[in-house]
Amino acid sequence: MHLTGAEIVIECLKEQSVDTVFGYPGGAILNVYDALYKHSDEITHILTSHEQGAAHAA
Q1: What is the spatial distance between Cα 17 and Cα 30, in angstroms, rounded to a whole number?
Q2: What does the radius of gyration of the chain's CA atoms come to, in whole angstroms?
């Protein structure tokens, strides 16, 4: 089975029983957001206005 780095991140989140993530999409993280979208039934994403808001919410 061949996994991308983004898919590995999602699998690690699932392994740790993470069900909610907070974030602010940008160019460098878009691959993770694509993988997160594929698993949106398992992990909920909450979009924040800016990075500091995401860190505070988490």
Answers
A1: 22
A2: 11
Q: Which two tokens stand for residue 27?
A: 């160019």
| Separation in Å, CA 22 to CA 2, 3, 12, 44 | 27, 23, 16, 9
Closest CA to 32 of 15, 49, 12, 52: 12
> What distances in angstroms separate CA 4 from CA 15, 32, 34, 37, 52, one per listed residue?
16, 9, 11, 15, 28
This prediction has a pTM of: 0.82
Task: Read off the pLDDT of residues 5-30 as tens digits, 9 standing for 90 and up.
Answer: 999 999 999 999 999 999 888 889 99
Closest CA to 3 of 39, 27, 42: 39
